Amino acid sequence: MTHVFTKDPTWLKKWDDFISKTPRGNHLLLSDWLNSYTTYGFDFELCIFLEDETIIGGYGAVIAKALFFKFYIVPHGPVFSKGFEKEIPSCLDLLKQRAKKHNCCYTQFSLPISSHPSIQEHVYHPTKVAVPESQFRAGKLFDHVYCSYGINWIDFNDCNTSEEFINQLPAKTRRNIRLAYRLEVENTLVTYESELKAGYSIVEANALQGNYALRSYEDIKAQLLSLMSKDKGYFMILRHDNQIKGASFSIQAGNYITNIFGGTKKGKPDIKAGYVLHWEWILKSFELGFSGYNISMGGSKGVREFKAHFGAQEIFYETPHYYRILNPFIFKFYKKSYGILKNNKTFISGILKRFK
User: What is the domain extent for residue 163?
Assistant: First the structure.
């Protein structure tokens, strides 16, 4: 058993292939996703475990930094293929030592642990994983890198076809999906940057209206295009009467599709854009032979209720987050400084914008 810390392009490609296919993989560990944080002045690296030159697990870490504060954050994992869970303790020890080598004052990781039967192949069972209590504490003290905490799972319930599945959905959901197709909506997967920008403008408009955070197009454009070029990310545009009425972006990792973001444009007639966008991702999931679709966690009460119309189950991981303060003095100084400076937006905006 060997391991390597790397950002080498050859290893990045091998890692991405592993994360896409291993059931415990997650889009938060894809190299393009990790690399997107460099926009804010952060860095990243991979720790890859090998057996006979074959990847059997590891992690991807975001090295968040501002001024002299540095944090070593693993947004999901470490992840290991089935049968190699025993390597987790040694991997966590490496994680801690690596964070120290980078002079980070704090490290954090998030393990996908659950006993829920619907997602067993995508998680660790609680009886199979034990985090050393002497080394790490349960919880999360750093919130500026998104970390996994669950999965909003639409299980296909052993349905062999999408037609079988749609017949299991509530009558209202089936009616709204079919209405869109009767109105002759058109769905296309984007291949050109100009189409991507036009579709993303719909998402930006929704974020502005809903007053929620969204990365700017220029900040995320390169990563979206890269994921799309590798057939790991898909950007869908929904048109009606030659006008864009909806847009959605999803990523394939862990042998399932995860919806990342989307937006719709209201108008007459109401084409039920949100319903048809998610239905198209379900169709894509069936096409790829997956057993379910992650419609994504979170959202307002209304959004969460909408997702439930597809049979989605919000499954929260069981105590997923763990941390270790490596330099108590620096971390305490960070907490005090952040608490004071975050209210002085004029003075600190140039620094805190990195912690999105």
Answer: 157-290
